Amino acid sequence: MKLAFGLLPLSVIAVATTLTRSEEPSVSTPVAPATVVAAPVAEAPAVATPVASSPSSSLLATQFFGFDECCRVSDSITSNFNGTKIPAGSYLWLNAVVNITGITDTTTIVKLCDGDVVCNIGGDDYYVELPKARIVVSELVNTATTEFDCDKRIWTTLVPKGYTGNVFLTGALLSIKKGLPGGLNPVTWDVTFCSDHCGLSFQWKWAAAVYDCGTDCEDDLGVKPVDGDKFSQFQNSDHAGTPEYIKDCVIGGARGGGGSNYTGSYSGTSTAKCE
Description:
Number of strands: 14
Order of helices and strands: EHEEEEEEEEEEEEE
Shape: globular
Distance between the termini: 33 Å
Strand content: 35-45%
Radius of gyration: 18 Å
Structural class: mainly beta
Largest sheet: 7 strands, antiparallel
């Protein structure tokens, strides 16, 4: 049974998203922009000195807001959480990456047009709507960046065309009010990709990690846009999707074991072809 969004008995609340029913391990009212469950991180941990950025990356992104869709494809991946309980007062970081192949033009736009996560607890399905996303791969971009619009709830990631590897796709930070049991199974991500270019392939996978601190907007997380120690300001070996500004708060749970596993372990990889 898939319950209607907004009436779910999951003990999770996404920032700016509500899933409630009091008699179940449930979520409470949405975290308003001025309210958080745990105190926001006061200061971001030190990160590597940024490399030279793309000229006016925020302004550059606005050049690509127009979009003539060429193709659309849907896909899903089902996996599970590990056996570690997720404690009350913690934060669940759902995140996904994609490796895009088949790009030939100077600039290509890929969007996550729709996405949601469904998990099963006690025979009921619980639903979380994922933020939409826009990935711009362009020769005009020198440095990969990721930004989040807290009002529109959409990610924008700019990537140099010369980069090959995983790119941050989307992420949602959920505030855990009353805790979750370990071993949630199944957990299914359903996504729909669309692009202004046909003939692309999207190799994607998802992960989940638990943190004991959080923030009221995902833009304050400092999400790493790409893998590796080049191409972005975060010159380290962390995976794309790492919330760099709170990574010292990571603990075990979901698909992670704490330590340096900042995104959680990945699900299997699926390939969706946008033809």
